[in-house]
Structures are given as C-alpha cells and as structure tokens.
Write a structure and sequence with these properties.
This protein is mainly β. The chain contains four helices and 16 strands.
Length: about 210
C-alpha cells in the first residue's frame, strides 16, 4: 500500500488535504491522522497536524489557549519529531482549523495553513534542513480574496525557483488558477502571480485508509 501511495505522489487536490478542525475547549485535541489520514512525503516521510486546547490558567483573562503542532515520522522505527507551530490565546469556543498542503518536491519543506474564527489566518512553512518554522500572516491576502470573491480560505499550491510560496484560493472553481499570489518567505509580502512565472506543485499523498 505504501509503495502504491508513493508512486501516486503529486500535489494534493483542493478539499483533499489533511485537515482537522475543532472548537477551543478544556482538554480537547484533534489531529489529521484520525480525521483525514497522514500525508506521505518523499522517501516515505509521514506527517500530520495536531491541535489541542485548554484553559490558559491566567487569573486575569481566563481565555482558551490553543496549540498547533506538526508531527513528522521520518522513517519506520525512528522517533517522531514534534514541531511547535503556533500558540494562541482567545475566546472559548472559537473554531480552530489547520491543514497540511504538502511537501516541496525535494521533501525539505512542509506547508499548510492555520486559521481561527475571528479572522486570523497564516501560512506555515517548516524546513526539515534547518528545523526552522515560519508563520506568515495572511491579513493582506484575506482582503485580496474578498475583493476577488473567491471564497474565504487559502491553500499552498507550490513553490517558485526563488523559494517563493504560491498561494491560491481554497476552492474547486476557476478562482484557483485566475487568482494566485506569491509570498516572499523572507518578507511576507504578497504579489499577484505574474504570467510566465513557473512553479513546482507540492508533493503529497493523502492516506485515507
């Protein structure tokens, strides 16, 4: 089964990425491995996302704290690598959502999107080479998405030769191709994809078994 999945390796289709969602509550958790299955990357690397929440134990706020983690299983028999992505504090019951969009084609970077009710959205990128995580706020992209009338969500579609992150509307209609943006990972700046700029689609095989 694993060999078949690896042979089918390609970018994940919109709506088929590894995703999980829950309301912020006391001692609650969810992960994509249970909901949609893990994502297989190059060289049989397996990854999934975990979200958990609890009281923030602050005497002044009594808010609900959420933690997002990327969990990577490099090879069978090796211990998991747990990567903290984001810690947030806010209202109880707010919706927490995250999804993995896939790996760069060389398998060195993993991408996805985190969003919370109330408007916060960010692209995350994790470098397996440097073990560094980046979070890029999508507030400017949200404005562009509303103006284009292309839904309310985003997905990472691929990477450019210069290392840029290609962002697209998380829809199944023509918006996915006509409204795309490139994020400069060093500055977080967003630019419309210019005609003729090539990119590589992400690698990801979703195991739904």
């Amino acid at each position: 089964m694993l060999a078949l999945l690896l042979l089918l390796g390609s970018s994940l289709l919109s709506g088929e990425e590894a995703s999980a969602s829950m309301d912020c509550a006391s001692s609650a958790s969810v992960h994509t491995r249970e909901v949609t299955g893990p994502v297989f990357g190059p060289e049989a690397v397996v990854t999934f996302l975990r979200i958990y929440s609890e009281d923030d134990h602050s005497k002044n706020t009594h808010w609900c704290q959420a933690e997002y983690q990327l969990i990577i299983l490099p090879f069978v028999g090796q211990s998991a690598e747990i990567v903290p992505l984001l810690s947030s504090d806010g209202d109880w019951g707010r919706r927490l959502t995250a999804h993995i969009d896939g790996f760069s084609r060389d398998g060195k970077r993993i991408f996805g999107v985190i969003s919370e009710a109330g408007g916060y959205r960010a692209v995350f990128g994790y470098s397996r080479a440097t073990r560094r995580t980046s979070l890029i706020d999508l507030k400017d992209a949200v404005r562009n998405l509303k103006a284009a009338k292309c839904g309310t969500g985003f997905a990472v579609a691929g990477t450019t030769k210069a290392g840029g992150i290609l962002l697209e509307p998380r829809t199944t209609d023509q918006c996915r191709e006509t409204h795309r943006w490139i994020i400069d990972p060093s500055t977080g700046k967003l630019q419309p994809q210019q005609q003729g700029i090539s990119f590589e689609t992400l690698y990801g095989v979703l195991n739904t078994q």
